[in-house]
Amino acid sequence: MSLPLIAKKRNVMSSAERVQMYQRKLYLKAKQEKEYRFYILYDKVFLDYILQESWERVKFNGGSAGVDGLTFEMIESAGVEIFLKELKEELRQQTHQASAVKRVWIPKDNGGKRPLGIPTIKDRVAQMACKLVIEPIFEADFEDSSYGFRPKRSGQEAITKIKEYLKSGKTEVYDADLSNYFDTIPHDKLKIALEERIADKRVLTLINKWLKAPIYEDGQFKGGKKNKEGVPQGGVISPLLSNLYLHLLDRIVSFSKGLFKRLGIAMVRYADDFILMGKIMESTAITKLKELLERMGLRLNEKKSSQIDAREQPFHFLGFVFRYDLNFQYPQGGKFWNVKPSEKSSRKIREKIGFTLERMGHYKVEALVGELNALIMGWLTYFEIKGVSYPFVAKRKLNYYLRARLEKYFNRKSQRKSRLYRKQALRKQGQQMWRKLFTACSFSLLYWEMYFFQLKSIVIKIPPGA
Question: For 409, which of 71, 74, 344, 352 is 20 to 30 Å away at the CA?
């Protein structure tokens, strides 16, 4: 039986436990004293256990090297202790300089691209250390309407809250879309938000260095000290800073004596995606929202933002679609709020499965099973919200798709001149896979079984520990 943290001595605590205890103290202090400004924080950023835990988290998240080309493997071969010691000295002496952020472009479904910044691993560890120190302070202030990139909060909770609002009659929905939010956050206004709680100039200076870091793209350096707006997407501390800036909007919408509360309007926000919901959505509320965003230096995408009556028209949020559908299960009929994976989300998982099968055409059965299970388990875990979502139809379509793709995948093996050539690869390899699944794979993690020999279902849940 493990002891509670408060009963443990520091010398027997792990770095994660010491970080947890320190964060708890900061959170309670900030929660109890709403106006308190923390003036001595910087010396905590380079504490050994803070840096050690930062390294562990950054390494767990993975990612490629930054502009310096330094990878996790290179750091480990040279010695993690040496790496952290050097970083500690840079932070302690305040000589740490932010390296340029390597920018790559990620394709979007609509044919466009979105920028992704890749800081160096050293900067990622330093940002994580700073984030571990300041995050609990702002967490004590954040509103309940914010769900994205926060400890112990998730998109599923946001979906649950939206359905609660719909069932309570808040069916007028304004779906807002911000244009290039991360790239348009003004540094001067963000600094004001930071200074509401942080008085330690050294911490503010360190954050400012990351905000002013130049962008490396196509062999050229851009921006730098001239940067006056934008938080690089991909930075470890960027989600916290983006949440902090939109917290200004959260506070106004949630203010008990404000316009939105008087009109009965609530907000659900996940990072820069948010919706307003109310029984009646008066034009004054939309006008007020636009004025607030303009004062904050943000732009509302008028083409993608829309006001709808959810009883008449479906809307999308975080990969789900919300529909007010007829209920055919009961003779009396009626309607219910149908929350299910959107067609776009279903298409994405099919594309990922297809790409995995193409990429792993020559891999062993265990490797293929592991990859596919990771994809499907993640999809199911996200879209199956007990008592809230209804992903049955989407799962059935995924079932059919998997059956067809796996049959094609294994039949192709019989078309090559190999030991399976003209030997019914689907059946033989299927039997081999079935045996290896039971002997070599951890079924405590499996959410599905591959379809062979007239099995009833491809998507099933196996109890943990089975």
Answer: 344
Query: Residue 431: what are its φ and ψ, rounded to 5°?
Result: -65, -40
Whole-number Å distance between alpha carbons of 407 and 218: 43
Judge whether 208 and 191 are in contact, CB under 8 Å: yes
Residue 135 has pLDDT above 50, yes or no: yes
* Average pLDDT of span 32-40: 94
Strand 172-177, strand 320-326: pairing: unpaired
pLDDT for 415-438, tens place per residue? 554 454 455 554 555 555 444 443
Give me the amino acid identity at 368. L
Start-to-end CA span in the chain (Å): 24
Confidence of residue 464 (pLDDT cuts 50, 70, 90): very low
Residue 402: band (very low, low, confident or very high) from pLDDT cuts 50, 70, 90: confident
Rounded Cα gap, residues 110 and 434, in angstroms: 39
Q: What is the mean pLDDT of residues 405-422?
A: 61
**What is the spatial distance between Cα 18 and Cα 7, in angstroms, rounded to a whole number?**
12
**To 10 degrees, the CA torsion angle through 148, 150, 152, 155?**
0
Dist CA 447 CA 236 (whole Å): 31
The span from the CA of 31 to the CA of 140, in Å, is: 5
d(CA 452, CA 455): 6
Q: Give the span between the Cα atoms of 197 and 112, in whole angstroms.
A: 38
List alpha helices for 46-120, DSSP H.
48-61, 72-78, 80-92
Q: What is the pTM of this model?
A: 0.84
Q: Which two tokens mark 106? A: 């990620």
